[in-house]
Amino acid sequence: MELKSGDKVDRAVFNAIPIPAFVVDDDAHILDMNAAAALFCGQEVDQAYGLRTGHVLNCVHSADVPDGCGGSPSCTRCVIRNSIKKYFEGQAVTRARMRMNLLPVSDPRAKVLLITANHLPARGERLALLVIEDITANEELEQALRRSEQLAVTGRLITTIAHEFNTPLDSLNNLIYLLKLESGLGESSRQLLEAAEEEVARLSDISRQTLAPHREAKFPVAVRVGNLLDDTVSLFQLKLTSSKIEVRRKYQAEAELTVHPSELRQVFTNLIANAVDAMQSGGVLDLSIEKSPEAEVTIRIGDSGCGIPQEDLNSIFELFFTTKGEKGSGIGLWVTKGIVDKLSGKIKVSSSTSGETGTSFSITLPIRQLAF
Ligand SMILES: Nc1ncnc2c1ncn2[C@@H]1O[C@H](COP(=O)(O)OP(=O)(O)OP(=O)(O)O)[C@@H](O)[C@H]1O
Ligand SMILES: [Mg+2]
To answer: Which fold has domain 216-372?
Structure first.
């Protein structure tokens, strides 16, 4: 191994490159690195000299075994090591992507790195120039883009299905109507038909609600929050009764908001649906409305359900975060937060899994909605 002072790489040029670059030998020992690399590793070049890349980058696997970097079974899959190995075996320079878990665990996110092991022209020895680009942010952006594309497709699909539902639903309504006109119908058959009619009406409501955002007027209108909340709860009536959920209301004030009603209805629908899901064996749905002197209205939707574990609280508003497996899509709270943000409001959650208090979401909205 040779000391960094003996290198022929132009130090000024080397340091001016804004991407972490390391001079390494065939066992990933660091012999030099530029200023961007020192910044990335949080170590000066003197401290890093002679150490292997895994140690300097704080790779979790460098702590796996006493031999450190290169000694763990996972190291055979390490893109850094394999890129260096391929380079020394004379293969063409390749750029390879790797997800690397770095210590300390204070930032538990894995980094996504783009690794290139390159030729080092000025050196006679068996040395390589290792370039490590941190592409974590790009990767996250790409993922968010992919998700929002997925969401747009899902949205279009749902709208199309809801639209297509309407024709057979109208036919079903007509058929039930005709059947009810039959004179020889017994009492129990009539009751069954009425139940069927109610279910069809419910399906129509759901379909209408799904299509509502696409039909609604372009301008926001004044709505009474309590009425909108009650209307939304009524759509859940059947489910609330069958799940033995009692609804408790505490509307201390009535407030009028100028909004697109479908948006606020969607917020309430998502929160109530989650509350109902959390109370599989019955409970209490607490609804409250308060006005504050700061011209804000706070709507609380609480449940006495299973609660949200502390470690999930930071993730619940993320797109596609769900703990419901096949039954959930993890879209509800993400959409809810988006709507509340758009209305310049705030959404907060408090929850306990102790089985006594359940979960409570509060939404605070300014009473005067001016900007749309
Ligand atoms: N009231 C609640 N009680 C317990 N857990 C909740 C509650 N509200 C939300 N959660 C948790 O937050 C997660 C995300 O909720 P979100 O509404 O975004 O998605 P989802 O209900 O799983 O699916 P969907 O897209 O159908 O709404 C849920 O899977 C659940 O773990
Ligand atoms: Mg939900």
So the answer is: Heat Shock Protein 90 (3.30.565)
Q: Say yes or no: CB of residue 303 within 6 Å of ligand 1.
A: yes
Choice from 268, 269, 270, 274 to test ligand 1 binding pocket (greatest atom count within 8 A of CB): 274
CA dihedral 250→254→257→261, nearest 10 degrees, is 60
The whole-model pTM stands at: 0.54
CA end-to-end span of the chain: 65
- Report the chain's mean pLDDT, rounded to a whole number: 84
| Per-residue pLDDT band at 121 (split at 50, 70, 90) | low
Q: Which CATH number fits domain 4-134: 1.10.8.50, 3.90.230.10, 3.30.450.20, 3.30.70.20?
A: 3.30.450.20
Q: What is the atom index within ligand 1 of the atom nearest the CA of 328?
A: 23
Q: Quick check: CB of 328 below 6 Å from ligand 1?
A: yes
Residue minimizing CA distance to atom 29 of ligand 1: 322
Cβ-in-10-Å burial (0-12, 13-18, 19+) of 322 comes to middle
Ligand 1 in reach of 306 Cβ (< 6 A): yes
Atom of ligand 1 nearest to the CA of 361: 1
Whether 269 lines ligand 1, by a CB cut-off of 6 Å, is no
- 353 pLDDT higher than 90: yes
What does 114-160 look like in DSSP terms, one character per residue?
EEEEEE-TT--SS-EEEEEEE-HHHHHHHHHHHHHHHHHHHHHHHHH
Per-residue confidence (pLDDT) for residue 179, from 0 to 100:
87
Class (C level, CATH) for 137-215: mainly alpha
Residue with the larger pLDDT of the pair 180 and 369: 180
Ligand 1 closest atom vs CA 335: 18
